[in-house]
Amino acid sequence: NAGVMQNPRHLVRRRGQEARLRCSPMKGHSHVYWYRQLPEEGLKFMVYLQKENIIDESGMPKERFSAEFPKEGPSILRIQQVVRGDSAAYFCASSPPGSPGTIQYFGAGTRLSVL
Amino acid sequence: SQQGEEDPQALSIQEGENATMNCSYKTSINNLQWYRQNSGRGLVHLILIRSNEREKHSGRLRVTLDTSKKSSSLLITASRAADTASYFCATANNTGTASKLTFGTGTRLQVTL
After folding, report:
1. Which of A5, A12, B8, B29 is most buried, judged by most C-beta within 10 A?
2. Which member of A31, A42, A106 has the closest CB to residue B105?
3. Given an 8 Å threshold on Cβ–Cβ distance, is A45 in contact with B94?
């Protein structure tokens, strides 16, 4: 009965490299959300996906960031050409079908450090 | 505008005392939730209160919601050292299929022995 699994837990990248963050939702959950947390701040919504569909990407930066949730496999948050300002903790959450916007179950996060 | 602002930003109490945290928000909501985050970890859901509810209890937790003032409070009674964490309120405003949570900046609670 695993919870939301994120990997890697820590990721170090140099400026200009690509970062790929993975999230496997809880079993039976079809809604996935990505949030970003800067030090000493709350979480900021980035994107909400269902299987093969992006539902709400209003929090995603216009460039370099993309997200997907394929039919098979985990959800991926991809950051191209990373910059120091991308350093943050990225959290994924999931919720069951039929009840979006209620309780979201969070993973432990991926801490991205850009050198 | 900032949605979900908690106060105080930091709170230090002794074990056994009660801790009260407040949250204010700006837009209409469907529900308000409180989450806890231990240092360096993910968020754990504590309690959800719907917009038509005024008070809710769960164990040592008591949450109130005043939609006329757009505010909520979280009370932790008989605090323990293990309650040391950051606490965030989050509002949900489900419009269509959009279901994002809007988090406040959090209250850092320190419970000392």
Report:
1. B29
2. A42
3. no
pLDDT for residue A77 is more than 80: yes
Instruction: Match 């757009």 to its residue by tokens.
Output: B70
For B105, name the nearest residue in chain A, comparing CA atoms only.
A42
Helix (H) or strand (E) holding B43: strand B43-50
Distance CA A42, CA A27 (A): 27
Contact A54, A67 (CB under 8 A): yes
pLDDT tens-place string over residues A5-31: 999 999 999 999 999 999 999 998 889
Place of tokens 């496997």: A24
Q: B44: distance to nearest CA of chain A, Å? A: 7
Structure tokens, B26? 């700006």
List the structure tokens of A63. Answer: 């460039």
Nearest to A7 by CA among A102, A104, A97, A77: A77
Give the DSSP H/E element, type plus range, for residue A23. strand A19-24
- Which has the closest alpha carbon to A112: A57, A38, A29, A3? A38
DSSP at B98:
B
Q: What tokens appear for B17 in the block?
A: 């005392």
User: What is the per-residue pLDDT for B1?
Assistant: 30
